[in-house]
UniProtKB/TrEMBL annotation:
PANTHER family linked: BLL1555 PROTEIN
Record organism: Kouleothrix aurantiaca
Organism classification: Bacteria, Bacillati, Chloroflexota, Chloroflexia, Chloroflexales
Region (Disordered): 1-27
Domain EfeO-type cupredoxin-like: 21-104
One Pfam family this sequence matches: Cupredoxin_1
UniProt-listed InterPro entries: Cupredoxin (IPR008972), EfeO_Cupredoxin (IPR028096), ET_Amicyanin (IPR052721)
Biased composition (Low complexity): 14-27
Superkingdom to which the source organism belongs: Bacteria
The protein's name: EfeO-type cupredoxin-like domain-containing protein
Amino acid sequence: MSGVIKVGDGGGAAQPAAQPAAQAPAPQTVGVSMKDFEFGPVEIKVKVGNTIAWKNDGAKPHSATASDASFDTAIFQPGDTKSVTFSKAGTFKYYCQLHGTPDGNGMVGTVIVE
């Protein structure tokens, strides 16, 4: 426990110690795995300012490409990781360019940014 003791000349009431300003939570990085032609998890929720790191844990190249073209990791190889930071709220559907389609078929996922 910590506190502040104010020592003065006794000529007045003690003043309360100033409280530190509330700080916004630090941005976080959240992982999504790409393996066996699936994203895991398929749907993920993050806060504005957070980053998603897609890791290709499979044996084939993959991408994470937004259906609305708002982000694209480009195609990357097994073992590699690509990241995207989300600066605005919304729901972003995405797919793998090689194994999914922008209309939601195949290897697809959803990012919900709050």
